[in-house]
């Protein structure tokens, strides 16, 4: 995606500067500390300090439990869980409250055992389904590291007899003000063996991780309704719902609320930041009563393309996300850093600068064209999909481009040009968690800064303005960008109360949102999706769109 946008991969040997540093793991405090300094150079990183806290399974249990205590049942969207070893006795007490001996052999007891709840044990430090197992009897539980034990959702919604969960993409460019976007498309990930509670040890029945299921015997088989493989797009899922006569509008609104409430659970821990963002993968399971359950939040959702569903979701999503964040609007192949240096060089005449800029823009045209080609292709594809739709065609998502080089742009408007040009990218292989050999030179940054700014007060002003180095101001966050829909704030009112970090107020707005959505469905059982959207927008005085996957 980065290359398609004309970016260059960071090369430490050529002494390149960089603009985006994308890591699968978090960044050290030092990196964040330097972000204010980097801001003027428009450099960005893909994690927010402490943003990863909800991505640890044990933290998530803790945060959501805490919110449940304060705000009540609105937080009942995560299966009840215990952190082990710390809460082993609580778990044991709950197991015994169910009135069962922990290990029994007799037939009568075995029958009773079937009625006992099932638990799922998940090691905290593992991912992709590794180390997970199910059990009914406490005596079957064994663990040698920090682990969570969670109530197993025993009645998931099944398609063709197969269990599935959802992978939803969420982007948070700012916690102060809280700004949350969710992508319209996502993935449904299926187990590859028919679901049944008879065999708790069969991972292809109970776990929906693609990493596990693609190794199973059922992966390539043509499965009932599902077909081969183990993934659908949300569009495919919604079409299935339509065919099966399942009204799913409320489900998506509850999912949207669940995401906001989860983010709110840790918002107070996070300092104000600029030039950094989080890109989360939310895993949600739907049960047979169409109730969504949050399973976990992933810090670095997989971006690999294993199948057609991946390809049709992930690439457009990333392009749209970079547009949303203003990471290059249109890449030009120009180096901002070079220009910046030129700008600060007093010996450079204005004419020199204009000439250089003209050259750079001419050189960058092939890249602009490449980016445009990609967009045209994508638009054509969406148009085709839209045409193939019948009833809801009028509400097809329209790709928007956040900005482009304006038609009235003048070459001598040098400082404005900087806003539109972004260049090099640092791209580390997934496995490489170390710093590149040539670390970005903070000393040089400091030197540059003192050269460019009169005093440290200027820097502070930048930090307090909460604007990103490219001008993105999350106090007036756009309602959508491509397929990214702003789900929070529901109403953008700059510097209004609703934009401040008052969690209590925000939770009560989400409660109202969920209740209004429920009431609308109840009071207008025959209303179309568009009508429900309109009603909800009116009731909530929303300034933006309603998040709902395409159909
Ligand atoms: P990992 O980080 O290892 O992927 P998850 O929490 O996502 O761990 O769990 C892996 C899979 O196990 C999920 O995709 C889901 O299919 C299943 N699963 C996890 N927790 C539950 C639960 N409480 N109830 C039912 N299924 C669950």
UniProtKB/TrEMBL annotation:
Which sequence ranges form a coiled-coil region, renumbered to this chain?
none
Q: Which UniProt keywords apply?
A: ATP-binding, Ligase, Nucleotide-binding
What are the GO MF terms of this UniProt record?
A: ATP binding; tubulin binding; tubulin-glutamic acid ligase activity
Give the UniProt record's GO annotations in the biological process aspect: microtubule cytoskeleton organization
Q: Which SUPFAM superfamilies match?
A: Glutathione synthetase ATP-binding domain-like
- Gene Ontology CC: one annotated term: ciliary basal body
* Name of the protein described by the UniProt record: Tubulin polyglutamylase TTLL2
Originating organism: Asbolus verrucosus
The record lists the lineage as:
Eukaryota, Metazoa, Ecdysozoa, Arthropoda, Hexapoda
